Amino acid sequence: MEIIEITKLRKLYGKQVAVDDVSFAVEEGEIFGVVGRNGAGKTTTVECVSGLRTPDGGTITVTGLDPRRDRAELRQRVGVQLQDCSLPDKLKVWEALDLYASFYERPADWKALLDEVGLGPKRDTAFAKLSGGQRQRLSIALALVGAPRVAILDELTTGLDPQARRETWDLIELVKARGVTIILVTHFMEEAERLCDRIAVIDGGRVAAVDTPEGLIAQVDGAQRLSFRGPPEADRILRSITEVAGVTRDGDHLTLTGSDDMLLAVTTALAANQIVPTGLRMERATLDDAFLALTGHAATS
Amino acid sequence: MTALPVKARRATGLRKFVLTETKLYLREPITAFFTLILPLGLLLILGIAIPGFRDPDPSLGGERVVDTQLPAMMILLSVITSAFNVIPTVLAVYRERGVLRRLSITPASPGMLLAAQLLLNLATTVVGAFLTIFFGHLVLGTRVPAQLPWFVMAYVVGVCALFAIGLSVAAVVPNSRAAGGVGAIVMFPLLFLAGMWLPRELMPEVLRRISDFTPTGAFGQALRDTWAGGSPQMLHLAVLVAWALGAGLFAARAFRWE
User: Choosing among A54, A102, A139, which should be mutated to test the B contact, i.e. which has the most B CBs within 10 A?
Assistant: First the structure.
């Protein structure tokens, strides 16, 4: 079932086009990624979904509601974590959760939530004394304290160290396990690839592609790459193998692109000619490569 | 858990906000010092240290400085600090750090946080005024306001006028640092015109006339008149109501949540 539907969304800031033409649908229970470079229109798109901005064109429905017309009801059902939002410095963790829980008709049990996000021991700590990762975990807890059906998480791991980022990813998977549908806005391709069931690639205010991470990667030419060091006489043999699409040489170093069955064909042919490939490595294309292929530029600029 | 009716939920929400803001206020001892302790301290120190303040002063019509002039100015100081320093700074911090924006995507309104801030500041200024009157009376023999209903009325419209101006400052300043600066720039001339350093009785006629139309001049005189047992001048009440409405409308139009 589709829980969020966006059709031909358009949003201008003055004369500046932030979102040109965006359409996609999010299925109930999935983690749906919205990826793109800074300024691509990701945040504006989800701000229209959460009712924070009024679209200039197109329609949005979220759990059957119109984000502008049914504002009050939408706010009960959608939990949002925003970029660049903080709490008063001296507010304690439990006080923030207790306050936010009081806004909702049927709030989640914030004490249980506190333990789930791993902030149990930080219950009485003031916001200013929390680390970046702890603040993000509190921010997730605040987005969930109203027991929403949909959670929108915007650039959740920006500025976190790798350890805190991985912990936050585990937490997002936990949220999904509770049956909450998640829209995850990010410009980290590694994060999108690891977490998302499906991804919309936004570029210049338009949708470049919507697919599973694997589906997006499969669209890249030479999705498989094989690299090793070998002597010059190997080149002629390699070029005659049908599974190999391309051979590039840089000194000793060879990089081959080709189909999934390339590995066996190459090693067999080399062994038959008594050539030993050293440092043999199979590489798979990543979502970064897919992003580059789809939009013509790298995800992080 | 069953759903609460909307009205009950709003009341719970506001109570939680007031409680939360009160806790945060008490965790900033500097703020509490400037609004609660400093005006009372100044009253007692000046009242005790300057002997002339406790003698009948012909220039004040035979009244002692500690009777109404000094305590009224100290109450004004407490209200003006809340209005021009505490409120604009807190709201500007909340705005620039996204606290208000974050609230706007919950079922609660950032307006509730604003209401809680105003209620809290009203409460602290009332406590400040009570402490000033109580200890002033105990230590210096300051009068207890003789016309209590008029005194309370003058106090309420005065607080409304100054808080409305404070909200206007909060509405126009770009950030919290500017809020403190603009607040201070507005505060000192207004304190002067209220008679903080030169009692209104000693002001040249022109200056006193200007003072009549300022929110602080009207507020200070209305407090002194009712303190001494008279009724406030209608001019002063009208001036305060006009400032409250004018600044209140301006703030409501100009205030940005993000």
Answer: A102
CB A117 within 8 A of CB A141: yes
Whether residues A44 and A173 share a domain: the answer is: yes
Q: Which structural domain range is residue A151 located in? A: 2-218
Count of structural domains, chain A: 2
Phi then psi for B68, rounded to 5 degrees? Answer: -130, -40
Q: How many domains does chain B contain in total?
A: 1
Question: Domain with A235 in it: what CATH number?
Answer: 3.30.70.980
> Any residues with CB less than 8 A from the CB of A149 and at least 6 apart, and which?
A3, A63, A77, A78, A180, A181
Residue B3 belongs to a domain? no
Contact between residue B20 and residue B119 where contact means Cβ atoms under 8 Å apart: no
Chain B residues touching residue A106 (CB < 8 angstroms)? 1, 3
- For residue A298, tell me if it sits in a domain: no
Global pTM? Answer: 0.82
Cα–Cα distances (Å) from A256 to A243, A260, A263, in that order, read 10, 12, 10
Same domain, A169 and A234: no
Most A-contacting residue of B1, B7, B105 (CB-CB within 10 A), to test interface:
B105
Q: Tell me the C-alpha distance between B110 and B92, whole Å.
A: 13
A126 and A253 together in one domain: no
Asked if A82's CB is within 8 angstroms of B101's CB, the reply is yes
Range of the domain at B55: 9-254
Q: Is the ipTM of this complex over 0.90?
A: no
pLDDT tens, position by position, for chain B (258 residues)?
A: 445 555 565 666 788 999 999 999 999 888 888 888 899 999 999 999 988 888 888 888 888 888 889 999 999 999 999 999 999 999 999 999 989 989 988 998 888 899 999 999 999 999 999 999 999 999 998 888 888 999 999 999 999 999 999 999 999 988 888 988 888 888 999 999 999 999 998 999 999 999 999 999 999 999 999 998 889 999 999 999 999 999 999 999 988 887
> Cβ–Cβ of B13/A102 closer than 8 Å?
yes
